[in-house]
Amino acid sequence: MRSSEGRWVRPAWAWDGQRFWKRPSVGWDGDGRILALREDGPGEELEGLLLPGLVNGHVHLEIGALATLPGRGLINWVQELRARGQISAAAAGRAVYAAIKLGTAAVVDVGNSGEAAAVGRAAQLPGLYFREILGIDQAEMPDLPGPLTPHAPYSTHPGRISGCARRGRWTMHVDEDPEESRFLRTGEGGWAEYVRSLGRDLSQWEAPGVGPIAMLRQLGVLGPMGLLAHVTCTRGAELDLIGQSGAWVVLCPRSNLHITGRLPDLSGIVSRRIPFLLGTDSLASVADLDLLQEAAVLRRAFPDLPLELWLEALTSRGGDWLGKPLGRLLPGTAPGILHVDIPHPEQLFDGTSWKRRWLACPKV
Ligand SMILES: [Zn+2]
């Protein structure tokens, strides 16, 4: 991202990560570091909304754009993706810059090649770039550097799930499709057939006999360091377990609708005070990496939730889970300052592709 110049502005609206301000005074220095945000003060008047850069809580930047068939379920989708493999440095490069252009200040990226991490660092896009660990028939951890994270309960051995979680923050695809719970409860079904078709040996793997969230609790890994991606099929008692554990969730509604035609129980998530982020997933299941469109889809399905909740999910919550000074217009921090050309913040998630630009880039 290009470097910025220090500036004072008085935007019509500002979102600071927790609340809205009407026509405040906001200043930052040449490094994009916030000097102040206050009710009155200097600055040129600016229409529209000022907000910290957005945090994408679940993305696979190395996977290029691929028009997969919609509504065929996760197993068919995974087969299609594997058959048409779209992982490349070029794809990662295009995705990183597309994400930045759409207002992304940080990512929780999951990859297998290391390409996204290399491009993301070169582009100064902060975040956590995980290397994904698979192997349902391998209990021991591979000898790999960097942050490691398990792929999913149907593809990663419990020993490896625990091994990743012991290292610090981790994230994992969980309960994205009903076949996952069937596989864990019975050891049978579509996932059993599919992993065997890949030559994996399930003879040493024992079905836990419970759903994915209960399995993670039994493993002792469910807690605030965990970020559960999708939870599309998670309901009732399993949501209770997430709520009690302090684990976080990240929702990718457009990808869910494309792959399975389902949406997560956001009302249940909010009523249990489970902290949630939003993510785009990869360009193999969404048309673009625009986080505002993720919120737009969920807001249409859950229209009664307050506007602030969506903005928290896109900004401060992401910084909080990452443990980085991102997602808040907080003096002394450089979260990236984004300007959205919009008459009123209420319109932000109406499905319009609102014009946006960076006034200062993020630095952590
Ligand atoms: Zn994913």
What does this 3D model show about the protein?
The chain is an alpha/beta fold and 364 residues long. The chain has two domains: 1-53 and 327-364, Urease, subunit C, domain 1 (Roll); 54-324, Alpha-Beta Barrel (TIM Barrel), CATH 3.20.20.140. Helix content is 31%, strand content 24%. It has 13 helices and 15 strands. The strands form three sheets. Strands 1, 2, 3, 4, 5, 14 and 15 form a seven-stranded mixed sheet that branches. Strand 11 (226-230), helix 8 and strand 12 form a beta-alpha-beta unit. Helix 2 (89-101) packs across helix 3 and helix 7 packs parallel to helix 8. The longest helix is centred in the first third of the chain and has 13 residues, at 89-101.
The biggest sheet, with number of strands, parallel, antiparallel or mixed sense and barrel status, is:
7 strands, mixed
Q: Specify the overall morphology.
A: globular
Q: How many separate domains?
A: 2
Question: Mind telling me which CATH architecture of the largest domain this is?
Answer: Alpha-Beta Barrel
CATH class of the largest domain reads: Alpha Beta
The fourth-level CATH homologous superfamily of the largest domain is Metal-dependent hydrolases
Mean pLDDT: 95
Secondary-structure element order, as H and E?
Answer: EEEEEEHHEHEEHEHHHEHEHHEHHHEE
Radius of gyration: 20 Å
Q: In the CATH scheme, what's the topology name of the largest domain?
A: TIM Barrel
End-to-end gap: 13 Å
Q: What is the number of strand segments?
A: 15
Q: Which consecutive residue ranges, at least 5 long each, have pLDDT under 50?
A: none
Instruction: Give me the secondary-structure category.
Output: alpha/beta
Number of helices: 13
The small molecules bound here are: zinc ion
Strand content: 15-25%
What is the helical fraction, as a range of percent? Answer: 25-40%
